[in-house]
Design goal:
Layout (H helix, E strand, L loop, with lengths): L5 H6 L9 E4 L4 E4 L4 E6 L2 E2 L7 E2 L2
Antiparallel strand pairs: 1-2, 2-3, 3-4, 3-5
Bound molecules: zinc ion.
Length: about 55
């Protein structure tokens, strides 16, 4: 179960390409559905910084 509420998720967009984000790694990451960058979630707070993102699979 994700720690992020649905309303919050809808507001979250990839800062690189503005695509929607999806849960990854049991909610500890957010993966961009567009460019595939993976953003960390720290203490339940998504860190939507391209500098913090990792390349996805
Ligand atoms: Zn993206």
């Amino acid at each position: 179960m994700s720690a992020l509420a649905g309303w919050a998720r809808e507001l979250l967009r990839c800062p690189a390409c503005h695509a929607e984000l999806a849960d990854a790694q049991a909610g500890t990451r957010l993966r961009c559905t567009g460019c595939g960058l993976v953003y960390p979630v720290r203490d339940g707070v998504p860190v939507l910084l391209v500098d913090e993102a990792a390349d996805g699979d």
